[in-house]
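Q: Is it fine to ask for two folds in a single conversation?
A: Yes, each is treated on its own. Send the first.
Q: Here.
A: Result:
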Amino acid sequence: MSDSGPTPDQRLTLARLADVLVAEGLGMPAASAVGVADGLLDRCLDAAPALAEPLLALLDEVPADDLDAFVRGLAARRPDDFAILTTTVVGAYYLSAEVRELIGYPGQQPSPLSAAAEPEYFEMLERVYDRHPGYRECP
């Protein structure tokens, strides 16, 4: 993320909006409870830097009250801004180790190949190797 990241006020605003979108319930924590406006936001914006500028501009225009109406208005009249907000909040939410544990998602796991499970793959590799056993300079 760039040096011009979210201000403390923008982070607080995002936490409040995030709780409108992802409230506590059914055994899952609210978005702000897992830190979507803190380190998880930074990780999310590092992974998707194109979200940063429009998100920060949006956070600067959020009213102090009636956040439900603001979010509904975004969804109805400004779908692109709504998509930026929801993508950021949900993306940051699922970066939380606590959330991933609660939903039973261990994260990306290695998937080693076995000759028994993937014989066609290994046959293809053998054909490529047999075709030319060494390096050849390109013209």
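Q: Second one now.
A: Result:
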Amino acid sequence: MVANGALHCGSGCTLGDIMAEWLVFAIPAVAVAFGYQSIFGDKIFAVWMVDYIFAYSFGIFFQYFTIAPMRGLGFGKGMIAAIKADTLSLTAWQLGMYGFMALAYFYLFRMVLGTELKTNMVEFWFMMQIAMICGFLTSYPVNWWVIPAH
């Protein structure tokens, strides 16, 4: 039950991250709008903000359409239940994912290999797969705590 909760969260994270990464890659002005060059010296931090917004939006959407029909809730109460169900789990997932990607981006690729890790590289998406596993691992304890009767 806990693993399913974490994986449910991960589905929103995965879709949101994929869409956000390619959006910012295709339209670099999005990163600028989210603080690249003004607040953040490195583009990755602005991209993570976009990733989080997209992942959270998908997560709430998925949770709403799972919880509201199951509990017979209207839109308002269903949205509140979806937000309660997904906020901590999704945030924990994203933190685990960002932690690994920071290690890959700043240390492994930039410092060790002397190259930039970019969205249009196969290596980027391989690292994202490992990052998703890290996200699962960091969201699991949160889901253990949040999901009743585990």
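Q: Anything structural to flag on that second result?
A: Two points. Residues 2-145 form one domain. The chain has five helices and no strands.
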